[in-house]
Design goal:
Chain lengths: 92, 92, 92, 92, 92
C-alpha cells in the first residue's frame, strides 16, 4: 500500500457497468516525509468516508477491487484505510 | 485509475482471438493540472463511446479486462469512465 | 497495452514447464512518435506470426498469459496484435 | 520480491473490512548495496514478527494477499521473509 | 519477461509458509545491450538450476507463482528460463 492525501473528487458523466455507487477521489501520493510526490491517482473510496485532506493508505492493483461494494469491477486503486498516525522508528 | 485524454486510434491488421470488437484508443496520461505526462497507452474502450479529445479515467491492470464485452481477454488498459469535471479541494 | 517494435529473438537453453512452443521476441517499447523509449521486454508471441521490425501492441501483466496457447503459464508480456496504422487526432 | 528495511509503523483510525489484525509496517526499499532507494511502502507483515530495522524481502502485487491470515483482502505489499544474509557472487 | 543476470543469493532466517524449498536469487535487470540497469530483484528460481552469472529471463507479476513448485505462494518475481543466446535483428 502507499500513503496519500485526498485532494479532490472526480465527477463522471458516464462509466462502465459496476461503478455505480463508487465514490472516486483524487489521491496525491506522499513520500516518507509525507510530502507530495508523483502524479495523483483516481481511487475508489473503499471506506465511503474518506474526507478532503485526509491522510490515507491505498492499494494500487487488482486487490483494489476487493475494497469495493461489488468486488468484480474494473477498479485498480482504492483507499483501504485512514491513517491516525505514522510512527517512524528512531534511528531506523 | 488514472486521468487521461483520448488522442488517437489504433487500427490492427491482425490480433489474438478475443479482441474482436474491442475499440483501441490511444490515451495520453495527464498530471494533476490535466497536462500531458508520460507515454500514451493503447486502451480498450470499455464504454464504446469515448470520443476524440475526451477526458477519461482508465484502469491499467488485469482489472481492465472486466471492462470488455468478453472479460477473459488479454487487455490491460481500459477506459472505464468519462469525466464530467474534476473538483480540486481548496487548500488541499 | 503499449506500442512496440520487434527487434530480436531470445533462444532459451532451458525453461520452466509450460513454455514449450512459446516464441520469445524482444520488443522495444515506443513513445507517441513511435520512437524507441525505455528498455526492451521479452514477450511471448501470442500471434505466432509477428515478424522482425513489425509494429505491435502488447500487454504487460497477468493478462499476457491469456494470449498463449496454454493460458496457465508464467508469461507476463505478450504481443496481442499487429498495428496496421495509428491515427493521431488532429489538434488532440 | 524486493529487499527492504522496516523503518516504522502505520496506525489506522479506520480501515476496510478484512484488515483486522494486519500489522502495517513502513518498509524502505533498498538498492543492491542495501542503501535506501525510492519511496517507502506500507506493507502488511505476513510474519507477524518483523521488527524495527530488520532487513526483509517483500512482495508488491496481488500475491501479497496470500501472505495475510485472511487471503481475500485488499493488500498489495507484504513482508514474506526476514533476511539472514545476502551473498553476492564474486565477480558477478 | 525481462532479461537479467544472477548475481547472488538471499538466505532467509524465517519466511511465510509456502516458501519452503524456494531458492531465492538476486537478479540484476539488464538493458538491451545486456548491461546492468535498475535495481536487482529477489526472484524465486523456477528452474532450480540457475547458476551464478547466468543470463536468464524472469517474470515480475502474479504469474511468477506459477513457476514455483507450489503455485499458491506469495512470490512475484521468478526465473522462468535460461538464455542460450539473444539474436538482435540487423537494422531493427
Amino acid at each position: 500500500m502507499k500513503l496519500g492525501r485526498v485532494i479532490g473528487t472526480v465527477v463522471a458523466s458516464t462509466h462502465v457497468e459496476g461503478l455505480e455507487g463508487v465514490k472516486l477521489l483524487i489521491v496525491q501520493p506522499l513520500d516518507k516525509k509525507l510530502e507530495p510526490k508523483g502524479e495523483p491517482v483516481v481511487a475508489g473510496d473503499g471506506l465511503q468516508m474518506a474526507g478532503h485532506g485526509e491522510l490515507v493508505y491505498y492499494v494500487s492493483s487488482r486487490e483494489a477491487a476487493l475494497a469495493m461494494p461489488n468486488t468484480f469491477v474494473p477498479v485498480d486503486d482504492a483507499i483501504v484505510g485512514i491513517v491516525d498516525h505514522v510512527h517512524e522508528d528512531p534511528g531506523a
